[in-house]
Amino acid sequence: MSAGGLSAGDRAPSFKIASDGGETLSSSGLKGAPYVIYFYPKDDTSGCTKQAIGFSESLKKFEKLGVTVIGISKDSLESHAKFRKKHKLKIALGSDPETKMAKDWGVWGEKSLYGRKYMGMERATFLVNAKGLIEQAWRKVKVPGHVETVLAAAASL
Question: What is the pTM (predicted TM-score) of this model?
Fold first, then answer.
């Protein structure tokens, strides 16, 4: 793994994570199909909400391409359920309270806000192809236009 985490061409780490829909999401369950995993810092914050709504609004387009979209944060399943209901989200939301998945994917680390250092989730998105390889990785994502960029990359698989 490169110092900056995973990148295109790397094998996607295996995962098994609880979702707010009551099911367990896993890499083995997605085997043979492409998927998008996007990590976000916190439910119901401005950028995270815009991103989740964007992926939800484009979900039918991803589904037409056969691509599953999963959002991951360390928030609880209860928090995810409230977030989903409040914003009418359609995408699967996985809960990673111990940050195991975030660490495996290289998106948990030191952040800085107004000079204060803390550990947090990097906003990052990974497009994984049907062979389980990372097709594209976006790090330190800026929300505007991001969903469209991921969708265009998914369409080229």
Answer: 0.94
